[in-house]
Amino acid sequence: xxxxxxxxxxxxxxxxxxxxxxxxxxxxxxxxxxxxxxxxxxxxxxxxxxxxxxxxxxxxxxxxxxxxxxx
Length: 71
Known about the structure:
Layout lengths: L2 E7 L6 H15 E12 L11 E7 L2 E7 L2
Parallel strand pairs: 1-2
Antiparallel strand pairs: 2-4, 3-4
């Protein structure tokens, strides 16, 4: 079942590779075109990585939220 918004809260000890794979799976399989993936993770994860179709990034303390739109 595809939807227009998915919020993903990841474990803070997840590896960068696993976090990238998780976001890719959600993006490809659960989002409809124009949908929004909100990915929450530790500010230490994916430090120098810009995700495809990322439209915003917000930091709150030790947490980072990435907003990714499916195009």
